[in-house]
Amino acid sequence: MNKPPDFSALFPYAGQPDETQILARFRTVAEQGALRHALPECFGGFGDDFAVLLKTHRILGEISRDPGLVLAVNAHLWGIVFPILLYGNETQQQAFLPQLLSGEWLGGHAITEPSCGSDVQAMSCSAERTDSGFVLTGEKRYITNVPLADWLVVYAKLDGKITAFLVSREDQGCRFSAEGALNACRGSATGSVHLQDCRIDAGRLLGKTGAGTQMIQKALEYERAFVFAGIAGIMQWQLDEVVRHSRERRSGGVHLGRHQAIGHRIADMKLRLDTIALWLNECARLADGGQRLTLASAQTKLYAAEAFLQSSLDAVQIMGAAGLEPGSAMAELVQDALAGRLFSGSSEVQKNLIAALLGTGDAYRGGPQAVSS
Q: Which of 53, 79, 106 is the last residue of a domain?
């Protein structure tokens, strides 16, 4: 990319965004090339690295101040773009990647179900073979980018094993709805996928039969880390606003920031933000080196999610009543930060994963573990 992205059109929302606004903002991100980083030029990517992706996403977050938009972009990238790049055949790559990288198509992945969250093995969505392909039946819920998405990677059990399929909103027997919309990350559409004898041809199988669990793990390995690049940008704006307020507001005859209790909160906010940046840089280094980032991404997600929530609470505390006024960005970020502890795997799941990678904990299944992976 020859010039830095211009996200100036992505001013913060005034009121509740509608689907038209959400889609328009996603397309603006795409027009600035933010979907093309760390992807090969042969499919329309820039052929650059994850370090550039981090920088671009951080700028996006700082200017837009929109965790929902950040979530939508990352669900698109790690939910469908990279799975097709890593597991798709040449026909699928040529058919899907150019339109997904340009933003012509919006995508994501459908894993969660009404009664199945972190335990993906409990999913009930099923796939059966037909003479010409497959038929899918089941429901997915709390899916980012639905109902606006054009395509999704849908995970279902085929012969009892989780398998990935490419599903279009136009497929017969498939319906994308706004059911399951959330009161957080309002800059992204969230909804449900209803599959009732949804018939797709054999060419929609993504990857190998039964490889779905591995594909989910790989997608979340990247998503759980790099989604916080944009959120780090939002936290930078949050910190700047708090510092400005502490200088302008006076209490007891001195600037608010002169009170040690306030100054210490601000110092902690800065420490958290810079620590997140260090973790993100480590994940980018590993990804650019072709190394696994399973442990690093789990640690990044765990720390960053908890840090985002605590800094959001601190920001409201420092702003006082002004931070709780209707439409206050600070108050809305608290709600978004609560969601941050849940999406891409909850904080508790990350702790289980970290313990398992260290060779202990409830999630450990035996066998050698690479602590540095």
A: 106
Strand 161-168 with 107-110, pairing? unpaired
Q: What CATH number should be reported for the domain holding residue 224?
A: 1.20.140.10
- Helix %, strand %, coil % for the chain, to 5? 50, 15, 30
Using the Cα atoms of residue 110, residue 114, residue 115 and residue 117 in order, give the sign of their dihedral.
positive
Residue 306 annotated in active site: no
Which pLDDT value is given to residue 318?
A: 92
According to DSSP, the residues that pair with 239 across neighbouring strands are none
| Spatial CB neighbours of 267, under 8 Å, sequence gap ≥ 6 | none
| Nearest alpha carbon to residue 235 among 181, 297, 296, 303 | 303
Kindly tell me the burial class for residue 117, based on how many C-beta atoms sit within 10 Å of its own C-beta (0-12, 13-18, 19 or more): middle
| Average per-residue pLDDT for the chain | 92
Q: Quick check: 258 pLDDT over 80? A: no
Q: Say what the pLDDT of residue 337 is.
A: 95
Of 104, 223, 282, 325, which one is the catalytic site residue? 223
Give me the pLDDT at residue 370, please. Answer: 40
CA distances from 25 to 40, 134, 142, 189, 329 (A): 24, 35, 21, 12, 18
Last residue of a domain, one of 91, 106, 121: 106
Q: Is 344 in the same domain as 225?
A: yes
Domain of 126 in residue numbering reads as 108-208
Same domain assignment for residues 144 and 191: yes
Estimate to the nearest angstrom the gap between the alpha carbon of 77 and the chain centroid.
8
- CATH number for the domain spanning 41: value is 1.10.540.10
pTM: predicted TM-score of the whole model, two decimal places: 0.93
The count of structural domains within the chain is 3
